[in-house]
Amino acid sequence: MSLLEVVGLSVRFGATEAVRDVSFSLERGERFGIIGESGSGKTLTALAITGLLPEGASTSGSIRIDGVPLPGSEREMAQLRGKRIGMVFQEPMTALNPLMRISDQIEEAIVLGRSGGFAQLEVPYLLKEVGLELRHGDRFAHQLSGGQRQRAMIAMALASQPDILIADEPTSALDLITQRRVLDLIAEICARRQMALLFISHDLKAVGALCHRVAVMHRGKLVETGKASQVFAQPQQDYTRKLVTASRFEAPSLQRPPIGGPLLEVDQVSRDYHHASIWPWGDKPLRAVDGVSFSVATAECVALVGPSGCGKTTLAKIIVGLDSATSGQVRLAGARYRGADLPRERRRDVSLVFQDPFGSFNPRLTLEHSIGEPLRLEPGLSPQAHVDRLVESIEAVGLDADMLKRYPHEFSGGQRQRLAIARALVTRPRLLVLDEPVSALDMSVRGEVLALLAQLQAEFGLTYLIISHDLDMVSAVADRVMVMEAGRIVETGRPDEIFANPQHRLTQELMAARLPEVG
Amino acid sequence: MSTTIMPDRRPILSHPSLWIGLGATLMFALLALVSLVWTPYPIAEIDIARRFLAPSAEHWLGTDNLGRDMASLIMAGTLTSFLVAALAVAIGAGIGVPLGLAAAAWGGPLEWLVLRLTDFIFAFPAIIVAILITSLFGPGATNAIIAIGIFNIPVFARVARGGALSIKTLDFVAAARLAGLSNAGIAYRHLLPNIMSLIIVQGTIQLSLGILAEAGLSYVGLGTQPPATSLGLMLRDAQGIFLIHPWLTLVPGVCIVLIVIALNLAGDGLRDAIDPRLKAVGAPNVAA
Hints:
The complex is a heterodimer.
Chain A: E1 4-13, E2 16-26, E3 31-35, H1 42-50, E4 57-65, E5 68-69, H2 74-84, E6 85-88, H3 92-95, H4 102-113, H5 119-129, H6 134-137, H7 146-158, E7 164-168, H8 176-193, E8 196-201, H9 204-210, E9 213-218, E10 221-227, H10 228-233, H11 238-247, E11 262-273, E12 286-297, E13 301-305, H12 312-320, E14 327-332, E15 335-337, E16 350-353, H13 367-372, H14 383-396, H15 413-425, E17 431-435, H16 443-460, E18 463-468, H17 471-477, E19 480-485, E20 488-493, H18 495-500, H19 505-513
Parallel strand pairs in A: 3-8, 3-9, 6-7, 7-8, 13-18, 13-19, 16-17, 17-18
Antiparallel strand pairs in A: 1-2, 1-4, 4-5, 9-10, 11-12, 11-14, 14-15, 19-20
Chain B: H1 16-37, H2 70-106, H3 108-122, H4 126-137, H5 141-168, H6 171-178, H7 183-219, H8 231-238, H9 246-280
Protein name (chain A): Peptide/nickel transport system ATP-binding protein
InterPro entries (chain A): AAA+_ATPase (IPR003593), ABC_transp_ATP-bind (IPR050319), ABC_transporter-like_ATP-bd (IPR003439), ABC_transporter-like_CS (IPR017871), P-loop_NTPase (IPR027417)
Organism (chain A): Devosia limi DSM 17137
């Protein structure tokens, strides 16, 4: 008998069916992964198993644990959740109570999981098991790093010694190095405790590294189930094949314009942040960028990689003129500036593409107005030329000119990122700064956007400065990589050289944290 | 990215409190507007012979101590109350929203100044401002409007600033800055349209508060002056004879209560109808 058996599960919201006829089983000690893109219904499946579906959802089909169907009453369900199922959520900051110390929250989970016993005595063991120290238990959630919070969440999930651990995108809010550590921790604990794992993710590599068996979910249906190695090596369905291909970034081979002379020069740029304080002495300023110098040649593609908080986004903001350097200067095609004082007539030479395609358009403006906005940097454009530019840029990113009349919410994430690139191109810039251009997109769309970028570079001779923490993407597209840590550039070189033979400690850690290719 | 569970989006039609509130408000507003062209009897017509009449076919709500027709008085009084409150909201929003937007868009010393200014105004209740203005310019509906309007300014400034601050962190504002838009341009083009719904909801709430404030000011004699009338003034006229003729106090009192309840229901309903949509905007509601 399987530990968990799901047969014909469907979840509907009114007339829309979010999960359709999903069946799978989970054996004791097995690690099972569900892969799917946003909106595929994978989280709803997990919530259905824990009986935590949002109001308004109706389910059909059966879910059995050890052959016993899930109880109907909320009270019994809560007991079952406490004793048999542990759950780790995506965003540990919101899943932890901000007003309770970590050890108290773990203790509460132990007490709820069973009756009697000395809960306090077990807390130190649990902390140790997830790789936290005793002193971390006395802290509050905001005093821990993202990785530590996720460890605390895992400790809470383990508190009741569950048979099943459900992890819903537990690492997608974490940076590369922390992600690898948390994944290793989950694997280790599952092996030690003989606990079954239901791992939900959009990241094929994370699933491939952790799970024995995988299921691929698409539009609410399971399209393929099987052994991880088999599914990834010989995908049977078109959709799975598409996902596997998309997870390996392949460098598009296009005729590239020759790399020219230096276009952007960054010279000893530093940026200090002062804490708001009534005392003029007091805190030392926080140095986000610390004496950074580099140059980017025309038609080159340079990538800036580093962990979160290393100052890469601040540097990008200075280059595009959203923020000003405390010291040092930037030269763009001869024009010298420190950031926000970038001369107005030069602003059209540089554009920024934002990370989040959902926040980068005003929901109340049609795309025509949003995309046309940067054209105010080019006074003296006739109305006809204005329209021509809009059509030119939207067609350059492979979309239709009819779409200009529509509003941003009518478009998917991938389309919006194309539109964001169209807006960045409308002034015919020479330098495009891309801040994590694909990390908010679904796997299958990432490849398309990267191919588009390569094609645009070939067509218009664009220069790219790509900011990312994704080494696979960087090694596929960049001519040169700069590794940044704590505001300094610690290593520079060609991607194949730097990744084959990393010199700096951070680069080595990043390389070690890289998950193996699937298939 | 994992699935975001969206509350099922209900159309505006399915918010009953919004419809009850809006319907009742519109009914009162219509009644008030009709009084501009027609009332059963002229409100200034005093006829002592027919005073203290009970409700009848001729006088639907009876007559007051001066023999004036109560139904006519209520219609005209409601108009005054609405007018005073609406103009006060217009003053408050007209000055407060630009102040709040400016505070959010520029920040720095300007924001400090706006915040301290609103704190300063907040410290004076409408009644104190009204007494100040009345002692300078004499009582009257206009001065009540100004007093309540001043009282509304900091409320709108705060709401506008709060809403604008959360919009300001979004990427499209940074994109606009890159596109060379000035602070004023960003405030007008990007911040204002996105906080409009907040302003409308706050406006409804301030309208009901304004009607209460007008009634209060007229009651103490600082607002509308006879021969014009307002609901507050009717209360004041009837208070001395409450024990003998409670009806004369009850009618305007119940009217005030009903209008305020209707406006609050409409405000709550509007907020409920608008909020989920605000949340859904920008959420990944389309599968990529």
